[in-house]
Sequence to fold (129 residues):
Amino acid sequence: MRSLSLAAAALITLGGFTPAHAADPVPTPKRGLFLTVSGAENTWIRGVLLHCAPEPSGAHPQAAKACEAIAQAGGDFAALPDDPHACTKEFDPVTATVTGSYEGRAIDWRKTYPNACAMDVDTGYVFRF
Fold:
């Protein structure tokens, strides 16, 4: 019992003590965009992390082209430049989502397309991963 009292007293005494490492700033995580594409009823899902600043990077296979398209749209995913090409009228819904931040603004966007080709036409390089 005496050892518990001594330990408690030591903790109380050290309560105002701040170790030197606690004053070190915590590194800010690199902000970016998490892009996902999922099949109907989430039967499958894939996603990548995309960073556009200070330069395009991340796991996106075409990060530079994707960041260029996002910049052209001013960060508005509903306004991404189209890439018109022919698609079948197959109904196999896919949902594209984006969460994260772009140029200091929070982004939370989601849209369901009738098929992957329709998504590709509407979003160009952004969801080509």
Notes: Helices lie at 2-14, 63-72, 116-123. The radius of gyration is 23 Å.
